[in-house]
């Protein structure tokens, strides 16, 4: 099969390097009839997708196998898509520049609910039928994974395979079964899907029937036969020191969102914030050893030429060997001006001495996430931080020369009142006051306090999965309250668009009935909804009206504990009983301690291996 000729159109689009595919450390293989072709598809533009660690891991993992050729596929930007459609060029793999319609698998990562129409648009641009039931034996098998895959039901009618949990082992198992069955003359997709359904971490939506009550909620979810498991259990990796991790990563031609080495130090989180989906679905905690990280760093720097390392995890300051690791990196690479980034620090467990050492190489601001303005509400969400933690931290920071601080909050949290919002204003003003109470010769110049307020969106497998999203009117009122309260030359206030949060909430807790909404949304031009310049809320509302579906049923309705939720047939290891207990404790403001201190009985140690449990 020949490479598609895109030479002429590249002169007419922005950033043509997005579509070249010959970067350092990319793979190029000879393709024959025995080659299993896998497209790792990211439903956003190149700069976003190339910053995704999961893509780098699976891309190199699969390409280490002689019989597998994994290529990257990104959503083309609007200008490129227009040129491709005008010139009848189908969506292609970056490496071979051949149509993805002829691949064996297309694996989409689900990072954000507002990317769903981009997935459908990519299938359409490739010439692949959207609905799984309409695809034939020659079409690729459509696979999805990632955090949003823990409730894949809005996409269930479009996908063949859902990967639940950590993908390194299970993806290879699925491909191996496919390779063995594909050799048979009587190969059928339906037989293959039935064969892999019992594999831990594999969910085949077409093998489950969903019934609904007349008034709306789900009545039952049941497998089509006894060979299909009633519950699908996520897959986890037991030992992170033994699992594959790339020793080289692709180095893009152009700047990306995270243009650096991402060094994963551990998976999971023990903190138990009640709004946080990642903290629940990625349990248990498993760490990489110091020696393994030391070795990976040396090889990644040598093989890429990058000058910055980001120590990646949900809460990097919780890594038990952080001090030892950072000091090693500084001692070893300071002479080469290699910077170190710690993207997720908690107020209550990091030392400024360590941060000061990092700042010698490259200066950065400080980011703190109190999440809520009052102690009462921080206890409701189980944040485990106090006002003193914040004020002590900023006082120390200003005395050591920092002058730029970012504060992250959420609005619309369960039980929130305007007194809690007053607390956001008060905390921000106390940070400003703290700067001016610091001796002039010690503090840095040019104070800049940035306050960001995102909107709480209830997510599956969290203690708040039953809670309603605030109405748009309530969100607007709270945002205006903060805009008025944070009028200061020293404070910059940013807030998230309420309408995108509304749509995110709809699809985050949606069911299969939303498939017709997504399909119709694509028909009328809904795509790149995570980008404000492309998001059209009124267009979406018309789509819901046409489909006779009330989006408020999914976004603004409180669920009862006994309601069957669209994701109840999926098991992430954290029990529903635990989530109910945590929801009840939230109502009384009762804290649950860090799992490293005392087991909270979440259920992850029942049947799962590895981790501190």
TrEMBL record:
It comes from Alkaliphilus peptidifermentans DSM 18978. The lineage of its organism: Bacteria, Bacillati, Bacillota, Clostridia, Peptostreptococcales. Residues 255-494 form the Radical SAM core domain. One of its GO terms (molecular function) is iron-sulfur cluster binding. PROSITE patterns: RADICAL_SAM. This is Radical SAM family uncharacterized protein.
